[in-house]
Write a structure and sequence with these properties.
Elements lengths: L4 H12 L13 E2 L12 H14 L17 H13 L4 E5 L2 H11 L6 E5 L4 H8 L4 E5 L4 H10 L7 E6 L11 H10 L3 E5 L14 H4 L8 E5 L9 E5 L1 H10 L1 H4 L6 H14 L3 H20 L10 E5 L3 H13 L2 E2 L1 E3 L10 E5 L6 H17 L2
Parallel strand pairs: 1-10, 3-4, 3-5, 5-6, 6-7
Antiparallel strand pairs: 2-8, 7-8, 9-12, 11-12
Helix pairs in contact: 2-11, 3-11, 4-5, 12-14
Length: about 375
């Protein structure tokens, strides 16, 4: 079967740069790689309660049977969206099939022709892909640099268009956060609409894992929040939080919602039960926070400083080959720590990314960092 030469060349380029992606089976090593921050994906209570809820509702079916606008909008959707909206203290929530679908659906539909989107240069792929599908003009600002953002805002002043400011509350590569309070002040000063992706903050930040925006009591200042369930909630799907008008608009114009089969009753039940479990998981969230603090203190002792308050801890090790070798050495010692390669991150910014969980022990954290420090010392 013929395969285009141009595609062969792109694959060969990845191989030559030690950057070829391959699918591997799930690791059985000590987990410092997954986004399952609270262990919800393996939570037996959630599993049992989902089964009971589906049985009680007589929703024993494998699929949704169609899009939400056709036959797939089963009753659990309404209950789950209502619960999510109340949990996050917002008017409405609209569930999408994934965080990627939510960002594509929002940015391709909401900003209009000649509107302006200002986005953090480190915004992840689904935000950038959604912006590419938009008819709006888009400009990036330097990462977490609000002075740079304000300079661009000053050039965008016009009453004829809307300006959207887009960022993440926790960035997936470095685990750092913007100054949301100052960002809100900027958005109000320049009459811009603020959009915050909270994928890596949900379940991690706040007493009840409500996310950074809500923990700072800024939810009424933000036009839209994107909550992704494939991280701390341990399931699948996402929701866009906002006003009733925004929800109605997305139902009518968001193509990634309109033209796809809805999530199954089982998926929606899992989201609902996971949120209900989150609301009473203060001890689990606190255990995670204790691990984050411990990691920061121990990493400093080994001269591997990381100081952010998120579950993502990155240690830059330049070069795809070198960071892959270090990751392999950690694997051989029983720890699943993933290398992040260019072009996912800029060349020279390749890194090991530790993802911490409530179920990691302090002994595991200390041992992994000790071994890492020894490996890096040997490679100097």
């Amino acid at each position: 079967m013929k395969f285009p030469q141009s595609l062969h060349e792109k694959l060969n380029f990845r191989k030559e740069n030690n950057a070829l992606r391959i699918l591997k089976p799930q690791s059985q090593l000590i987990d410092f790689a997954s986004n399952d921050y609270l262990g919800f994906s393996r939570n037996e209570t959630i599993f049992k309660q989902v089964h009971q809820l589906l049985t009680d509702r007589k929703l024993i079916q494998n699929g949704a049977t169609g899009s939400r606008l056709l036959s797939g909008n089963h009753d659990l959707y309404k209950d789950t969206e209502t619960y999510i909206a109340q949990f996050h203290q917002t008017e409405e929530a609209l569930i999408f099939n994934s965080g990627y679908d939510a960002n594509l659906g929002f940015f391709s539909a909401v900003p209009q022709r000649n509107d302006i989107i200002l986005y953090d240069e480190f915004s992840h792929a689904s935000i950038r892909d959604g912006i590419q599908m938009s008819l709006a003009k888009a400009y990036k600002f330097k990462h977490n640099d609000l002075e740079d953002l304000e300079k661009i805002l000053q050039r965008c002043q016009t009453k004829l268009v809307e300006v959207y400011i887009v960022t993440e509350s926790v960035f997936s590569m470095d685990g750092d956060s913007p100054d949301l309070e100052k960002l809100v002040q900027l958005s109000e000063k320049y009459n811009a609409l603020l959009v915050i992706d909270e994928a890596h903050a949900l379940g991690v930040i706040g007493t009840n894992g409500e996310g950074l925006v809500q923990s700072l009591k800024l939810q009424d200042k933000v036009f839209a929040r994107i909550m992704t369930f494939g991280k701390a909630l341990g399931c699948h799907g996402a929701a866009i939080l906002g006003s009733e008008n925004l929800k109605q608009y997305l139902i009518n114009f968001s193509r990634s919602l309109i033209y796809t089969t809805a999530l199954s009753p089982h998926s929606i039940a899992t989201i609902l039960i996971a949120y209900q479990e989150l609301a009473k998981s203060q001890k689990v969230i606190q255990k995670l926070q204790d691990n984050l603090f411990y990691f920061n203190s121990i990493s400093s002792n080994f001269q591997l400083p990381t100081s952010n308050s998120s579950s993502i801890k990155s240690i830059v090790i330049s070069g795809n080959e070198k960071v892959k070798q270090v990751s392999t050495s950690l694997h051989e010692n029983g720890f699943d720590v993933k290398p992040i390669l260019s072009p996912t991150v800029p060349k020279g910014q390749e890194r090991l990314r530790f993802c911490l969980h409530s179920y990691n022990s302090k002994e595991e954290i200390e041992k992994a960092l000790k071994i890492l420090a020894e490996i890096l010392k040997e490679k100097q």
